[in-house]
Amino acid sequence: MDISDPAPPQQHHEGGLRHEHGDHILHYPPSGEVPGLPRISATLYNQDLAPTKREGRHWTSYSIFALWANDVHSLGNYGFILGLFALGLGSWQILLALAIGAVLLFFLLTYSGFMGHKTGVPFPVMSRIAFGIRGAQLPAAVRGAVAVIWFGIQTYLATLVLRVMLIAIDPSLGRFDHNSFLGLSTLGWATFIFLWIVQVVIVRFGMDMIRRYEVFAGPVVLVTLIALAVWMFLEAGMSISFSTDHPLTGGAMWRSIFGGAALWVTIYGTFVLNFCDFTRASKSRKSIVRGNIWGIPINTMLFGVIAVVMAGAQFKINGHIITSPSDIVEAVPNTVLVVLASLALLVLTIAVNMMANFVAPVYALNNLFPKHMNFARASVVSALIGLVILPWNLYNNPVVIVYFLGGLGALLGPLFGIIMVDYWILRKSRINVPALYTQQDSGPYFYQRGVNSKAIIAFIPAALIAIVFGLVPFFSAIADFSWFFGAGIGALVFYVISERNPHAEDVSGDPIAVASTH
């Protein structure tokens, strides 16, 4: 039975319908129905879900490096490393943990990135390969939900920096920061809405504008954070404490080192899933490798050195452990420098937020409603969700952070394991790209009513085990490794129950591709 859409109307020929990021939505390939290829469904295809043409892709090695130059140096990551210092890990132990985690991430992200470069498709479409054209809604929704909540939270955290800067400029503004409406002060609301609008405006111009912003923000972030570390080093008399007064030793030390490495990978459990959203616009596989080498292991070690210098210098000065670089900014005894440093941290937070927490829900919404969504529309909807959930209340509720967001995060490992085994081991990277956009029941990704039940069967036990290991106190000793358990179990179960040599053929997506505007 053929349940595909009716043949696309003739007015959808190239040039008959605009398909840049605006209010226009392309429901069919620019050339209409392509001879010899399956009929494309308007419920599976639009200009943002379509594969990108190989010619004209814009992401270079530096683009990918700039992406990591921003994300690795996020305030949340500094908080994580400073927390390891507070737990008793010394400088060399923290750097070792980061080195182990960075090497693992380099390989995971590189192979994930290759998938995007070859197929040119975003993560929700990539998920159709293993989960089916309809089953892919599950991984896309999980990834999008995690991201949209963190978008709101990160925007709120950026307001804290902006409020410090504004009060430093005009102390009288402090009187607007003491009341509360729905959990936020007047100044808090003003700064949140301002930053919310800035991000929406940038994202509405599409992925290429995000790329341009990341390229601009990367050097600003690196120079600022290196300058803060140097300033702290000088303030501490050009020496630092390499550990707290109660450092970990023996087995506890090694468990924390490997646990820290595992958590560093878990932090990027989101990115290893949807890195193809970015590499679908990369110029070559070499650009991915070079960008990842400089952006992950090398940049991560620079990040680690900056973090331990900040922590060790502050501890030597007064025995206190800072929780974020923003703590250092507040202590700078010069208003001009406070303003400049705060602006740099705002540039950083916006860069991280758009890259890590805006792109995924935009593609997820496109995948859910391809007839009604495009990048611009989905970005506004994602931002509105991030606003109406009142994210500051979520962030200030430990139960929400630990159980809700932690539970969602535990689902990412099994999804990654299943998708990677299916793509690299079972199909050996042979993908029929046009078939990802057809509802014909003879298509290789239709499975049963559009869902691959084997992927669901593998996902359920792996997800449950990952959630239990990650959240139940009894398993606290292995909680740091829950992402690996989930990914490994999901991959193993899926491999065992799947057909060993599925009929897989390589068919290019170029005949139905659109020009890369990403």
From TrEMBL:
Q: May I have one GO cellular component term?
A: plasma membrane
Q: Where in the cell is it found?
A: Membrane
Enumerate the GO terms in the molecular function aspect.
nucleobase transmembrane transporter activity
Keyword Transmembrane listed? The answer is: yes
Q: Which UniProt keywords apply?
A: Membrane, Transmembrane, Transmembrane helix
The protein's superkingdom reads: Bacteria
- InterPro entries per record: Pur-cyt_permease, Uracil/uridine/allantoin_perm
Q: What is its main location?
A: membrane
Q: Identify the CDD domains for this entry.
A: SLC-NCS1sbd_u1 (cd11555)
Q: Which parts of the chain span the membrane according to its record? A: 80-109, 144-169, 181-203, 215-234, 254-275, 296-315, 335-363, 375-395, 401-426, 455-475, 481-498
Bilayer topology: Multi-pass membrane protein
Hey, which family's this protein in?
Belongs to the purine-cytosine permease (2.A.39) family.
Q: Know the name of this protein?
A: Nitrate reductase
Provide the species name. Answer: Arthrobacter livingstonensis
